[in-house]
Amino acid sequence: MSEFLTPPTPESSFNGHGAIKAIEGSSVHRLTSGQVVIDLQTAVKELVENSLDAGATSIDVRFKNCGLKSIEVVDNGSGISEKDFDSIAPHF
């Protein structure tokens, strides 16, 4: 399980009347933003969609060795806020 998701406890999942509470927005985002990328086409699609989601109006996709060595996406979107850096990738 991801270190960013904490399993719900009975106290946090129910409102005291047996009804299920809605998942908070930040948890929904983390649950739905995970993607399984199985090929180059899907990887590029996801990267371009990220650019569009960030409001980019200019997107440049560059491949080294037909994408086998690297894929680079440069855009003019809003980027990732510093407060979200820790949720992108684990620290080494």
Automatic annotation (TrEMBL):
The Swiss-Prot or TrEMBL record describes its family as follows: Belongs to the DNA mismatch repair MutL/HexB family.
Q: Which InterPro entries match?
A: HATPase_C_sf, MutL/Mlh/Pms-like
Domain of life, per the record? Eukaryota
Name the PANTHER family on file: DNA MISMATCH REPAIR PROTEIN MLH, PMS, MUTL, MISMATCH REPAIR ENDONUCLEASE PMS2
Which SUPFAM superfamilies does the record match to this protein? ATPase domain of HSP90 chaperone/DNA topoisomerase II/histidine kinase
Spell out the protein name for this chain. Answer: DNA mismatch repair protein
Origin organism is: Lentinula edodes (Shiitake mushroom)
> Care to name a GO molecular-function term for this sequence?
ATP hydrolysis activity
